[in-house]
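ARCHIVE CARD
CATEGORY: sequence design from structure
SOURCE FIELD: tokenized fold
FIELD CONTENT:
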């Protein structure tokens, strides 16, 4: 194996394509930014001030060989996507299968998809449009299609992240994303099988963004990325310390806001150097230090029990669950915890009730398919997400239910 001249010093180095390069760790070792002093196939020209290594490539951990000089991880790594090696069935073969709806039940593809799992504390990602970013700071909650950070950490530019967008819009000069930790694996589902067969059947006129293949992977000519959906496409409560981020064409990741659960709002983290990244977001002032997330009624919330009483709770992962309280002394760990949401039926379709206004209910389809979309007239808000206003008097089986979470 050859070693590039700049790789003979100290620091983190990664082997890739038969050579060794200086590298920077991304997302706790899920990916690496490789640097080179000379032009290398697959690397792009991206000079950095004060550096003599102007060529760059982002590589996922599964693409690299040895990692030299890495420190011990602070937490357990996520399970990698495992592709069985075979003389005639390598990565290209699996990727080809992942792009064919007819191959959804192929045993090899099923085994590969099953290796990507969500556990409590898994870092999740949802790429946002400018409008969605503005909606998040007003109270919009995670829902619909999302991804494990571990699987997409190598996508660091707006053009790279475009494959994850749910609106199908072209990449611009900046991309936005919501990052949060999964509260429980039962909150997520894989869009494969009978429960989701309606998504691939929806015609192009009734959908936004790329089609849903039904294989559990993102439509892509060059990426093998497992995708998830929130169970029944319902909203999930935001855990403490969720973040809103921006990615520039230079591959820089900028933390814009951090969610403060006790204050139910977003604290601005970005300094003056990067505040221009918020200029194109409607309704946001880059100079506002705190943004209360209270404009929208909460469609779901965590509740927990302590000393015989019921309280609003917050997931503060990886630590656990506690009572939502302003003072530290009253942030008691809960004795039980559940996600509370409101469900209903309308015109034969199962829905989540998002909010109620003047006798009308805002509904989101839990299992979108051509028949449910036609019967309800629901409109596609983003990939896989269909919503509609319905007269409250016509809605049936309207109920509030709790989804309990086990406590470790």
């Amino acid at each position: 194996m050859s070693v590039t001249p700049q790789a003979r010093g100290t620091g983190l180095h990664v082997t890739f394509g038969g050579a060794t390069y200086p590298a920077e760790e991304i997302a706790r070792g899920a990916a690496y930014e490789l640097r080179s002093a000379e032009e290398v196939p697959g690397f792009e020209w991206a000079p950095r001030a004060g550096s003599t290594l102007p060529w760059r490539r982002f590589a996922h951990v599964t693409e690299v060989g040895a990692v030299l000089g890495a420190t011990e991880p602070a937490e357990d790594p996520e399970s990698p996507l495992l592709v069985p090696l075979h003389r005639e069935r390598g990565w290209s073969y699996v990727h080809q299968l992942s792009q064919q709806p007819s191959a959804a039940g192929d045993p090899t593809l099923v085994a590969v998809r099953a290796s990507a799992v969500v556990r409590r504390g898994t870092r999740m990602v949802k790429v946002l449009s400018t409008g969605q970013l503005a909606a998040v700071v007003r109270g919009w909650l995670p829902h619909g299609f999302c991804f494990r950070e571990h699987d997409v950490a190598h996508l660091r530019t707006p053009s790279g992240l475009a494959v994850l967008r749910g609106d199908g819009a072209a990449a611009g000069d900046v991309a936005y994303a919501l990052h949060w930790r999964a509260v429980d694996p039962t909150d997520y589902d894989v869009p494969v099988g009978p429960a989701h067969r309606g998504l691939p059947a929806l015609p192009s006129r009734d959908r936004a963004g790329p089609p849903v293949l039904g294989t559990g992977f993102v439509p892509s000519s060059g990426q093998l990325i497992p995708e998830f959906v929130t169970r029944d496409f319902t909203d999930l409560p935001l855990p403490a310390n969720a973040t809103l981020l921006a990615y520039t064409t230079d591959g820089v990741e900028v933390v814009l806001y951090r969610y403060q659960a006790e204050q139910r709002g977003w604290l601005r983290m970005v300094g003056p150097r990067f505040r221009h990244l918020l200029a194109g977001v409607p309704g946001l002032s880059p100079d506002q230090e705190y943004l209360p997330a209270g404009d929208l009624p909460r469609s779901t919330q965590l509740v927990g029990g302590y000393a015989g009483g019921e309280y609003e709770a917050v997931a503060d992962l990886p630590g656990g669950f506690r009572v939502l309280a302003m003072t530290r002394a009253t942030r008691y760990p809960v004795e039980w915890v559940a996600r509370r949401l409101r469900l209903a039926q309308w015109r034969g379709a199962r829905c989540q009730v998002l909010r109620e206004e003047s006798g009308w209910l805002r509904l989101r389809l839990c299992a979108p398919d051509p028949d449910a979309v036609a019967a309800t007239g629901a409109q596609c808000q983003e990939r896989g997400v269909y919503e509609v206003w319905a007269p409250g008097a016509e809605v049936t089986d309207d109920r509030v239910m709790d989804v309990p979470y086990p406590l470790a």
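CARD ANNOTATION: The radius of gyration is 22 Å. Confidence is low (pLDDT under 50) at residues 1-9.
SHELF: design records, drawer C
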